[in-house]
Specification:
CATH architecture of the domain at 125-284: 3-Layer(aba) Sandwich
Radius of gyration: 65 Å
Strand content: 15-25%
Number of helices: 14
């Protein structure tokens, strides 16, 4: 069969997609969310390792294992209820649900609870609280109270059925029976133990004056970390910190360390050691009392001997041997001194009286009235002398003025003008000394003895001014030199 030629116009092309057959993004997201909700339980416990942890009010992190990674989020309301704050690299168990976040287009695990794997939870809580209280300064040795040297009454906070109480009582009974013990029965492990211990410490502190409590022992026997956990609670640490009575803590064995022991004023390894720390040894006290008694006896004997020696030495003095004679001699001396003092006072008074009289006489001669009278008499004579001196001075001045006037008139320009000379000036007031100083048309003023003559220069200027004649000694005598 012959093949027909190719005709592009007869091609129909692929079928066009229809809008009604496509799902919207929202519809697909809703189907994914419904599938996850239907295919997974509402509460899931998930084991994995924390990665990329960030705290932005809400907690955002990834949880992973060897083969997969899943995004997780814990909202702030759930994060505030957690016992500890996770870190990257920790293995945890998450409790929550899986949901599809439609706005972000990703599947996430929404955690409502987070727990470290195994016993690590208590360890992390312990470390977190230790770090917090250390930063607050609750562990600083400077903030600890000093223990009493000899307490009168000690309160023991522990279980009445525990062996720790018997160890404390036996130790006090053996070392110092004089110290009274007040036993406060509390639960030392399990739920509700921490509030009971904290309440007992606060009650003892409140009634310390009425009960006469000088120290508190908080103690219990050994056990696991879970058994001792009541003494790692913050409320117990706060009660010990606020207690105004010194607190000695002995929790568990020597290797156990609780937060209550770190906050207490003194930490002891065992209940027996705590009792020994607060009770002085009876044998040591007896030995110390005997030693002090011997020292007191020796001191009293030595003091009596010294006092007897001092008394014997004092009896050798005249004052103590014959006090009447000593007093009479001192009385005679006192009488003589009194008489000498009286004479000296009288002499001094007489001398001062004469001195006052002399000063009064001098003052009378120099009183202001007498001085003014003398000055008043001298004033007329001084006035007459001043008048004569002024007249003589004026006469001398008048004669000098007359002589100067004659000399001035002799050299006065007016006198020179009177002898037939004249003085010519230009309009600007400058002197005319030679012919070349003027030109036709200049106004001149000529002063003679009895007035002034005004004139104007006429004629032509000379072709070349005459050369001035050279005078001896650079003499430039002109008309003004006559004056």
């Amino acid at each position: 069969m012959e093949r027909l030629p190719f005709d592009p116009s007869r091609m129909s092309g692929p079928p066009k997609p229809r809008k009604e057959d496509a799902l919207s993004v929202s519809e697909l997201a809703e189907r994914i969310e419904c599938a996850l909700r239907a295919g997974l339980p509402g509460r899931i416990r998930l084991l994995g390792e924390i990665s990329g942890f960030t705290d932005r009010n809400h907690w955002y992190f990834d949880v992973k294992d060897e083969a997969a990674v899943l995004s997780c989020v814990m909202f702030a309301s759930d994060a505030r209820r957690q016992q500890y704050r996770p870190e990257s690299g920790q293995e945890v168990i998450l409790t929550g649900r899986v949901a599809f976040y439609t706005r972000g287009g990703r599947t996430q695990f929404y955690a409502s609870r987070i727990e470290p794997v195994g016993a690590g939870e208590l360890e992390l809580r312990y470390r977190a609280l230790c770090a917090e209280l250390r930063e607050l300064g609750w562990f600083d040795p400077e903030s600890k109270q000093r223990l009493p040297f000899f307490p009168r009454r000690v309160a023991v906070v522990t279980s009445r059925t525990g062996a720790a109480l018997q160890d404390v009582l036996d130790t006090f009974r053996r070392r110092c029976p004089a110290i009274e013990i007040v036993s406060v029965d509390v639960r030392v492990q399990g739920e509700g133990a921490a509030p009971e211990v904290a309440h007992a410490i606060r009650a003892i502190d409140h009634a310390r004056d009425d009960l006469g409590i000088d120290a508190v022992i908080v103690t219990r026997g050994g056990g696991s970390m879970e058994d001792l956990w009541a003494f790692n609670e913050r409320e117990v640490a706060a009660a010990i910190r606020a207690c105004r009575v010194p607190v000695v803590a002995a929790i568990g064995h020597e290797t156990d360390t609780t937060i209550a022991e770190l906050v207490a004023d003194e930490r002891c390894a065992t209940p027996t050691q705590a009792a020994m720390r607060l009770s002085p040894d009876r044998a040591s006290l007896d030995e110390q009392l005997s030693h002090l008694s011997r020292r007191l006896t020796t001191c009293l004997k030595h003091g009596l001997v010294v006092a007897q020696h001092r008394l014997d030495a004092a009896m050798r003095y005249e004052l103590f041997a014959a006090p009447r004679g000593w007093l009479e001699a001192r009385a005679d001396r006192l009488t003589r001194i009194h008489e000498q003092l009286s004479r000296a006072l009288r002499d001094r008074q007489s001398g001062e009286h004469l001195r006052v009289e002399r000063l009064t006489s001098r003052l009378a001669r120099r009183r202001p009235e007498a001085v003014l009278e003398g000055r008043r008499v001298a004033i007329p004579h001084m006035e007459e002398r001043l008048t004569r001196a002024l007249r003589s001075r004026l006469s001398d001045a008048r004669r000098g003025t007359t002589a100067l006037e004659r000399e001035l008139r002799a050299v006065s320009p007016v006198s020179v003008l009177g002898r037939g000379y004249s003085m010519t000036t230009r309009q600007d007031g400058s002197m005319v000394r030679r012919e070349s100083d003027v030109k036709p048309g200049d106004l001149l003023t000529t002063r003679v003895a009895d007035g002034e003559i005004r004139s104007r220069v006429e004629g032509e200027s000379p072709v070349s001014p005459p050369k001035p004649r050279r005078r001896r000694n650079n003499d430039s005598t002109d008309q003004a030199s006559l004056f």
